[in-house]
Design goal:
alpha/beta; Urease, subunit C, domain 1; TIM Barrel; 8-stranded mixed sheet; 4-stranded parallel sheet; about 40% helix; disordered C terminus
Length: about 525
């Protein structure tokens, strides 16, 4: 029986509410066979389990591993040539992205996540090219990277069966283009469009293949309302109902998506998901920036969750989400870093600080703004609830899976930290990636003394750099040229897309009707 005693000056077990947490001073976590067996004072646990290996010291903070609840890629869009354009224009720029080895690409972002204390990622993979055999191979490469590094992953291939480039049918948009450009673009779009049946065959195949791996869960992800037909949404509902897996859907990321929903069905996007039977505790809405107050009320009523992607919303000019309003309505909110955070990396510690600071609206009432405890819970327990692992992760309590992080207390407190500054506030507001010393997943140390135990990071990145340093292929050059030529037509499509009189707020502080 494999038993480890993980000790620290402080053990952060879980958040109790927006203002308090269960924290043990001079505590420890007893890990047995990948599970948290006991939590308590170090001396008492040491006395009762003298043979257990001891990990950590009085110079550490022990805490649950973070959950990045919305993630897509390794090399960031900026690294691959896409600047931070408004979202709808940014979609078009992604046509020009270089082809990337999925295994190495996944390792690249996994390195960054683990180095910032992330132990679980919700990986939403987009546009694996058909046929089904290629889709299975691509998903397998991604999941093999997580297996090799030891990280926990809740995986879904995002379902798209329409409107691949703009918010109208592909054939209708192609008809807007000069004939020569349409002829070049059409097969590029066609290569991204897998038969709807293949998406569900992929889901079934992956669930069967990884059924015995305790660190992999397979879930559903209809990519967004504009990307999914009514038939696709119905198949998602049937699949989730039959299997009990959660679903994650981008929704109302921009005001253009809000306008699209009304053009599509005459009602809002949330009402359409409600009619499709998709709302509820198993449903997570990615972004949700443009939810109205009435829609937030319905989100709260149904127990639907939201994943807040703060950096992405800022970088792609999507707007400022109404986090404070969501919190007051009792909505459970997770944190996602999306393609990349504010520093163009996957640093959850920085993302938490951004969430804490972005929503500090003017005023005096402390209940109006996020607290460190609230943000910590978003990055742990609430993020866990959006994945296929649910309550088994995100907390250090008996019975939970032993996914935890050791932080260097000196990095938080040196040269001085007043005793009135609580440890949770110090972690959320001061912790840096350099202070993450050790990361454990399922009771296994996958990152020790700031070095990965399973994968050679330097070798993997050197191989990725060598592959990306090669000249573009003819096919990549063709996509690059088409992306540049089609960009002005995408901009023209959205020029008058919004209803007349739509406000263009600089800073939004509350939900909008």
């Amino acid at each position: 029986m494999n038993t480890t005693l993980v000790r620290g000056r402080w053990v952060i077990c879980r958040v109790l509410d927006r203002d308090s947490a269960e924290i043990i001073q001079d505590g420890a976590v007893l890990v047995r066979d990948g599970t948290v067996a006991e939590v308590g004072g170090f001396e008492e646990l040491r006395r009762r389990h003298p043979a257990a290996e001891v990990l950590g010291s009085p110079g550490h903070v022990v805490m649950p591993g973070f959950v990045n609840a919305h993630h897509h890629v390794g090399l960031t869009p900026l690294q691959l040539g896409s600047p931070d354009l408004p979202l709808e224009l940014w979609f078009g720029s992604r046509l020009a992205a270089r082809s990337v080895d999925l295994y190495l690409d996944t390792l690249y972002s996994a390195f960054e996540m683990i180095e910032s204390g992330v132990t679980t990622v919700q990986h939403l993979q987009g546009r694996l090219p058909p046929p089904l055999s290629s889709m299975l191979a691509g998903a397998g490469d991604t999941l093999r990277a997580y297996q090799d590094i030891g990280m926990r992953v809740s995986y879904a291939h995002t379902i798209r069966d329409q409107n691949l480039l703009v918010y109208e049918a592909d054939q209708d948009f192609l008809a807007r283009l000069p004939p020569d450009l349409a002829r070049e673009l059409a097969p590029m779009l066609a290569r991204q469009l897998a038969p709807l049946e293949d998406h569900f065959a992929l889901f079934d195949g992956l669930r069967a293949h990884f059924a015995t791996d305790p660190r992999i869960a397979i879930q559903m992800s209809p990519a967004n309302l504009h990307w999914c037909s009514d038939a696709a949404l119905e198949r998602v509902r049937q699949t989730c109902e039959a299997t009990g897996v959660p679903l994650h859907i981008h929704l109302l990321e921009t005001q253009y998506q809000k306008a699209y929903a009304h053009k599509r069905a005459g009602v809002g996007a949330l009402a359409q998901l409600d009619r499709a039977g998709l709302l509820g505790p198993l449903c997570t809405l990615g972004h949700g920036v443009w939810l109205t107050e009435a829609e937030v009320e319905r989100v709260a009523e149904t127990g639907t969750r939201i994943c807040h992607n703060c950096s992405s919303n800022l970088r792609l000019r999507s707007g400022v989400a109404s986090l404070n309003h969501w919190e007051k309505r009792g909505v459970r909110v997770a944190i996602g870093i999306d393609e990349a955070g504010l520093n163009d990396d996957r640093d959850m510690l920085l993302e938490m600080r951004l969430v804490l600071r972005q929503h500090r609206t003017p005023g005096m009432d402390p209940a109006d703004v996020p607290t460190p405890a609230q943000v910590f819970r978003m990055a742990t327990e609430h993020g866990a609830a959006t994945t296929g692992f649910g309550e088994s992760i995100g907390r250090l309590v008996p019975g939970a899976r032993a996914d935890l992080v050791l932080l260097d207390w000196r990095q938080l407190a040196y040269p001085f930290l007043d005793e009135d500054t609580d440890v949770l506030s110090a972690v959320v507001q001061r912790a840096k990636t350099g202070g993450v010393e050790t990361v454990m997943v399922q009771g296994e140390v996958i990152y020790r003394d700031r070095r990965f135990t399973r994968v050679d990071k330097d070798a993997a990145l050197a191989e990725l750099a060598a592959r990306m340093g090669r000249p573009r292929t003819p096919e990549e050059e063709a996509r690059r040229g088409v992306a540049r030529r089609v960009a002005p037509f995408i901009r023209d499509f959205y020029r008058d897309y919004l209803p007349e009189g739509t406000p263009r707020p600089f800073y939004v502080t509350s939900a909008r009707d």
